[in-house]
Amino acid sequence: MENFNISSDDLMNFVITFGPKLLAAIATLVIGLWIVKFVVKGVKKALNKSSVDNALAVFLQSLVSILLKVMVYITALSMLGIQMTSFIAVLGAAGLAIGLAMQGSLSNFAGGVLILFFKPFKVGDFIERGSESGTVERIDILYTFLVTPNNQEIVIPNGQLANAAVTNYSAKEIRRAVFPVGIGYTSDMKKAREIMLRVLKEDERVLKEPEPVVVLTNLGDSSLDLSARAWTKTEDYWAFFWDNLEKIKEELDKEDIEIPFPQRDVYLYQQK
Length: 272
Hints:
Largest sheet: 5 strands, antiparallel
CATH topology of the largest domain: Helix Hairpins
Distance between the termini: 129 Å
Strand order of the largest sheet: 4-3-2-1-5
CATH architecture of the largest domain: Orthogonal Bundle
Structural class: alpha+beta
Strand content: 15-25%
Number of domains: 3
Oligomer: single chain
Mean pLDDT: 83
């Protein structure tokens, strides 16, 4: 095996040539990582003071930390004379390939970031998207989990939620309940309106402002279509609606106000 002899002059030349670069790279690495740590702490404080969701805050801290550290390492290696252009190109190509292979997941990821940042809904809200509705149980970075009134779990990709119209029934503190009631043309419309208003105003859950109203909305084929409208707190909505819909029916029956229903008359003719 051939022996390699390194002279003191060669070693000295190596130290003189490569030493400053190595010291500069080490200094850049140490100072750079310290600055990254300082910046990440600042980002963490800023996110804690904001209303950003905790899951998104942790993710953003990690993302900022990783990106800054990669930049520091690349800078330090380039100071040693290592060509990083090819390495960066390989990373870019790999990132593009991974992105193309994970288009759906990246779409859900981006949607999750938007939902957690802008908060169109939050955990505990009752939302509806198309034919799907339920209470938001959990919001992850990729999926949102809903629980239906029948205690069924619906898992919706965040990409779909972020790019679709979503109705948030819990966003406002109050909601308007609408009670559509049809009465017969021969019934006393004024009396029916008074009964419906009385029923609503007797309920302590109804809000005085805006004031409950009963309006005629349509002259139907077989009925005068009335609409009773009252405001209540969002958390009381369904109990308020069910109770008063039943009460309105009972009170109209007591006063002999006809509520027509579809029917068909059949006439039989006997041929002589």
